Amino acid sequence: QRAQCSNPSGLIGDSSQCDYETVGKLNLDFSSKLHEIVNMPFFRYFKVNLYKECPFWNNAGLCMNEDCSVETMDRSKVPEQWRTKHLAKVSISSNPLFGAMPVRPPVKEQDFCIPDSNVDEVYVDLRANPERFTGYSGPSAAMVWKAIYEENCFDVSQEMTAGCQYCDSERARLKENHVGHSEDHEESNILVPPEPAPMKHSNPTKKEMDEIFSKVPKDKMELNRLVQGIAKDGGGEESCLEKRVYYRLISGLHTSISIHICDEWFNQTTGEWGPNLDCFISRVGMHPERLENIYFDYAVVLRAVSKISDFLAGYEYLTGDDSVDRNIIASVTELVNLVKESPPTFEEELLFHASQGPKGRQLKNQFRDHFRNVTRIMDCVGCEKCRLWGKVQTQGLGTALKILFSYDNASLQGHKAVNILSRSEIVTLINTFNRFSESISAIERFGIMYKEELEKE
Ligand code: FAD
């Protein structure tokens, strides 16, 4: 039986009227289909630049662990049609945090990501380089997360966006310390990395574990209360919808990455890969709002895939082999049919409410520019494999935001959507959807593991 949105008043909140259980049920339908699709070469082969310098600070010390490295592909294995070429030119983007800096086109008005330049680009088989525990941690990783969360600053302070004026002093401080871009490195004006947060290794008590799993996702009252107040880690009750949405998107992505690390953990004692329940509990399970935010991300990406479904079903996948093309179209069509049957999971039109007016547009542009910065911050990740998956998932989320906020429904229907997304955007959108789907499935599995642990006691 298909899942229904049982409570249209919305438990996930912040423009999503679905409840957490609905997302969990929907994921049972989608997960195997997504798994099948991301194993097809069209969705596995990803073009990426892993060697760009960090544009924001000196990135000394790359992770040298074997598990941090990425295996690249022989270009000749990638069908000619997918190897698109565009000339890299330099243009200037105005960035409210860091001032004017060079970026590489083509960056269109509608884009929420800065595309990679094609200098030094490589092809990577995503399945041959799974996202999992690499050991990357410490000041470098903490610095990247900090920079990403600090992009949650919006200037518009008029009545319609009350609460969006935020962190001016923080921004001024950053600007003072900021290196600018790579050419400025010799000025050695480097942001001081924050102290890394200590991992909580101690095992929670039975009572604590009971609390963790009783809240996810069964205790609706509690979840509702939490999403009204949003995020003890950040956000804040006074903040505007757009700022909360930004925060939840980032926090949800962070949760998803943490879940994959814990789900595919390397046990140094046994030398085996496998799930680590303590890791999950300490990084995610003990923080209900972090769990909620991955459900939020799922709801947002699902809505984006639903909005672009005609385009995905009608896209020419062009593998060079007609029978392979037909298989891809058949699988994608099955996925989009499932997506179309699902209840609405996110109402994008509630954001940037005054988007017809200059203030709403200004806020939307700021939101977009800040998210673009997040995609650039990925070049500061000091571990190749983490950088690869960071790029896939920030670009996938950025593509979802582009679909939701740069186009209305009418402009995406039927043939009107031709050329709206590049191959890279389709690949990252679907792989990100799959990663979020795997996170939701992993939460269910960790719940079972937890119960089994309890029974042993
Ligand atoms: P971190 O995860 O580094 O978190 C830092 C702080 O952020 C925490 O102390 C907490 O205050 C806050 N926080 C944590 N989670 C949330 C949340 N969901 N919402 C809000 N606030 C939160 N490591 C790997 O092993 N494999 C990978 O593939 C990998 N990919 C990465 C990709 C990126 C883009 C980045 C920046 C890092 C990646 N890492 C990866 C490193 C990993 O994310 C952690 O930084 C590292 O494991 C250290 O974890 P930690 O427990 O110190 O806390």
Automatic annotation (TrEMBL):
UniProt subcellular location: Endoplasmic reticulum membrane
Disulfide bonds, paired cysteine numbers: 63-68, 383-386
Entry cofactors: FAD
Gene Ontology MF annotations: FAD binding; protein-disulfide reductase activity; thiol oxidase activity
Membrane association type: Peripheral membrane protein
Gene Ontology, cellular component aspect: endoplasmic reticulum membrane
Residues the record marks as active site: 383, 386
Superkingdom per UniProt: Eukaryota
Biased composition (Basic and acidic residues): 178-188
Disordered: annotated segments: 178-205
Residues binding FAD, per UniProt: 132, 134, 145, 251, 254, 283
GO biological process, one term: protein folding in endoplasmic reticulum
Keywords: Disulfide bond, Electron transport, Endoplasmic reticulum, FAD, Flavoprotein, Glycoprotein, Membrane, Oxidoreductase, Redox-active center, Signal, Transmembrane, Transmembrane helix, Transport
Similarity annotation: Belongs to the EROs family.
Complexes and interactors: May function both as a monomer and a homodimer.
Listed name of the protein: Uncharacterized protein
Residues of the full protein shown: 53 to 509 of 585
